[in-house]
RNA sequence: CGGGGCGUGGCGCAGUUUGGUAGCGCGCAGCGUUCGGGACGCUGAGGCCGCCAGUUCAAGUCUGGCCGCCCCGACCA
């Protein structure tokens, strides 16, 4: 490709509001352009990277027996009504009506469609197991797109679906995907960690995410120093060390706490550490009032609350809800609460003495004891944090930021039961198909590759995913001898199947070098007056690891060898 | 959805406070000089100032409404 005719111009400056390195560099390097909030075009450079990522994914999913197909972007509402997600995804899906008033949506993901096909096409256990997949556009009307390609409203996902006769089969398919994902991310050049995650509204119970640790990533990940536990904060637990149960705790007594409605204020005025208090949070769980009692130094984790209690929606309570529960905001406590489901966080120690709200303005109760003064459903619903102990080994947990590039879910029979996708098993019984769902966001993966491979000048593409393998520069292009030698090299590269971007623009050396650094092709070949004098060209690696001069007639072969070595290393 | 910010040639921005000829840098076109890290000179093209109303002799600037984009939070496979 001659750069003078490449569609897409590099920009000297990125918009001042771009935060992530990938956002700035992909924009400046003419890889992507924004069309609307969270809606992006991949220009030729970006598109070539996306295609390479897709090919890596394709090869690895094929390797575990995946069959590629293609399911539609436009989905009828009826299928989503069968699974119940037509309503539960509100208002996150793009919806519209056709000319006849029928409801449709842009596929949010493809569980419904694949399950509908499976109920037609799979009739016998003899056909199983099956893995099908496709690369397809998804639409999600995210409330807040952000971070360039990281959170967008339209994106291509590789989603595969495993269909098995039983859970042992599902476990096997899940493991195959886990291994395939490890190879995919390694080949793409990103360090993706598998972490335990919350299945959310996907249905099913077991789920893992592949997270690339990136400062500025939007997910919070807790990692044990001993390497045996990694979890998304939406799911993470910690080893809880119960305070010693105290004997002879005096009867609970009311104390005056005028104006002290937060744990911080109480802690300051009563000179007691925050974990001596109980924090009671009044919420509406799917419309029903519930009071969640937490240690005073802990925050409620809504994702965990939803998952543990099987709730779809958590909202904070209104003043009216406080009155109904017989309490008052700022002074709520578990003792004497009415009309509310009481949930006690696992971090609250049974038998220990706490200070809690008295459900009366400007008053708290001292010596409140779980098991004596109140009781409730125990659930681990607090936020784990940096410095907590690992639930497996007691090691120290650290908090990191990450970007989720892929996920794997054990759906089980969630969709097959709802959509009545059954097969006839060996014993003659009709049974629901056992399914799994496995996604990788291609654009997001592209962004994380950049996050992991760049410097202050630009991108440093790994060979396996670089839009072109070689950047050929002339200094200057107006010199006839230089141009002739470079034209010759360009032809040789093309002949040899080397992917080459030829900077044939009549720009100064500074401009060409700066653009080459920005675009970040792994190998740079420079033909200049200086090198031509000796019948040579300069060969430089973008990562700075090599810089040499080679006779013009040996450049193509040498470069080809470097490429092949690097590709082989990435695939191994 | 709550809070904040922004919208002016292709890009990055000033001008809005105090209404009065629409600017700067980069980029772009032509000519010439230069040529290993974002060169220089001369000439030139390019703007419904986000949109719609209103106030005014006069609106980029004031008022109202709307739209779009960004950031923080909420939410989110």
What would you give as the CATH superfamily of the largest domain? Bira Bifunctional Protein, Domain 2
CATH architecture descriptor of the largest domain: 2-Layer Sandwich
Sheet with most strands: 9 strands, mixed
Q: What is the overall pLDDT average?
A: 92
Rg, rounded, reads 29 Å
Distance N to C terminus: 29 Å
Describe this structure in words.
This protein is α+β, with helices and mostly antiparallel strands and 572 residues long. The chain has 3 domains: 29-236 and 399-451, BirA Bifunctional Protein, domain 2 (2-Layer Sandwich), CATH 3.30.930; 253-379, YbaK/aminoacyl-tRNA synthetase-associated domain (YbaK protein, Alpha-Beta Complex), CATH 3.90.960; 463-571, 3-Layer(aba) Sandwich (Rossmann fold), CATH 3.40.50. Helices cover 28% and strands 29% of the residues. Strand 25 (470-475), helix 12 and strand 26 form a beta-alpha-beta unit. Helix 2 (44-63) runs antiparallel to helix 6 (167-188). The mean pLDDT is 92. The chain binds one RNA strand of 77 nucleotides through strand 21, helix 13 and helix 14.
